[in-house]
Amino acid sequence: MRKKKKKAYESANTFVKSVVEVFQSDPHSKFNNKQVASRLGITDKASKELISGIIEQLAESGELEEGNRGKFQLSKQSEKFPHKGTAYMTGTIDMKQTGKAYVIPDDKSLNEDVFISPSSTAHSLHGDKVKVLLFPKRKGKKTEGQVVEILKRNKKQFVGTIEVSRNFAFLIPDNPSMPVHIFIPLSHLNGAKNGQKVVAEITEWPPQSENPFGEITHVLGMPGNNDVEMDSILAEFEFPLSFSPASEKEAEQFPVTIPQDEIRNRKDFRDVFTITIDPADAKDFDDAISQKKLQNGNWEIGVHIADVSYYVRPGSAIDKEAYMRGTSVYLVDRVIPMLPERLSNQLCSLQPDKDRLCFSAVFEMDENGGIHNEWFGKTIIHSNRRFSYDEVQEIIESGKGDYSEEIRVFNKIATKLRDERFRKGSFNFETQEVRFKLDEKGKPVEIYLREMKDANKLIEDFMLLANRKVAEWVGKKKGNAEPKTFVYRVHDSPVPEKLENFTQFIAKLGYKVNFTNKKSLAESFNRLFEQIKGKGEENMVETIAVRTMAKAIYTTTNIGHYGLSFPYYTHFTSPIRRYPDLMVHRLLQEYLLKGKSANREEYEVKCDHSSEMERKAESAERMSVKYKQAEFMVDKVGQIFDGLISGVSKWGIFVEIVGTKCEGMIRLRDMNDDFYYLDEENYQVIGSRKGQQYKLGGKVRIKVKKVDLPRKQMDFILVN
Question: Is CB count within 10 Å lower at the N or C end of the chain?
């Protein structure tokens, strides 16, 4: 009998209601938490703790009143307890190392996360979609709840180090958000040896078991090896380590020669001056720009994008795998392409002196950036030269070099487009990018910071132009006809409460933001980014500013791009490395041929998947940077560096080393010249006796105390 009752509670229907019913069944009697548990047939510790919490919350909300010795009864205001009903919400679990968690609501109108105690997580894990039973709100407390159903698991596989004992083994996960170790029976090791990095899948998780049971699916190798560590990061985010034989075979069957029939069906740009501009170490070139002077004095500017859709047809093996991956992944030392190398680095790469198939956006423009005509369609090009960003930057600055006059024209028009964009309220998020020089074994020998210069911005502005105009052509309403289904890249306006919190945060650092309207907010943000450049608070302020803004996503519902200040925007310019761009190419071609509107629901599902894969790729890329920064510092324990305080917490001060952005923590317990406490309101720690202050943005000298490479963490100590 008790087993049945317990199952009913765990299935979530009415745990709070059941507690209330105990008091309603005998409204004049008083019960403590043990008596309520007994009446409900509850015997396990976790559920008893939950009952105790529910009773406490019901008392704080005034629905119960407390008598003597911790006993409660229905409030005297009503013998028939008017319980407000059982409230639920759904969301995503944000799990902490301690086992406690917060649920981020799916409903964006709910601005508060829900706290879940370790005993109420119901075996949910970080990133899982869950259903939560909400407890009555306690005055002055964060909303709390209990996970009652796991709607969708976020992960199938887990990466970590295997620890093998005589009778069993455990996987110790790399990810600190995984609060439990995975029990591995010896019969499920599949060749894994003690101390190796491995991948495991959870096979079952019995209700009464603290640990899930699993099986080793891949042995990666020994920790510390560069390839093993990079493969670990990819496996952690469930990106495949190789292409399927079917997709590789399909890619090899494409001919190098372009059929003459295909050339005749395209607009020929092979005699028009065309170049690519990319990083010096780039292997795939998916965009090119062309230029031709017209008789009326204007310029024909072409933005030419590799025509991946010619090769990758819907339903093919390559298409299925590209959709599954969603995006290319850029780790520090390698690119994990979305498409097989024969396409990404060869047939679809716009290499110089080779005919290549493109999908193009062509504009008649004046030198002030004004657009007089536009054309979209399939083309064939022949790039005259491949430039690196550094080469073009040198030409812009010196006015000398190959095709210097053509690059001057490109740069002048791009600058006008950029100025107009900022005039209309575009935000200028310019974060510094951490880059590495690696030796032949992949070990970092140098870290440097790459900034966006005019050469980078030149290409960016023409890509923004093409993306904006393609989205306008499809999305703008023509007469009474509704716009056809399309894939947009949208960016919502920020939540006012987040803006208010951000304004208060930076005010304490001596900065101001005006958000009376969109334009003033953009101007304030752009001015703020200039003011914080090179300061200790730069990284933290930029990070919080980005979090204040909404996250850009793919969707079929156009709400515009707030950050760019574009009413219509899409991703058209990188189908080699982004699946949404491939979808855009297919839809645009269909509509240019007067085809009917695509199924909106089908494309919305694909947009959701693409947004999710983009988030995973970004997380993997950040993790690889953190690992390489820690690896760079491994042999520098005991060395002294200049640093800037980048954050403060109750545990210590975060410091970013000048020039490399390697971040570590100075723990308060290591600051033994005084007793320090956190002044959270003013983002500083203060010594209680001497009054020494360490504030966000302050300059310090640090010594490297410890580098924990597996955890990608560093500990520093202060140097007087």
Answer: C
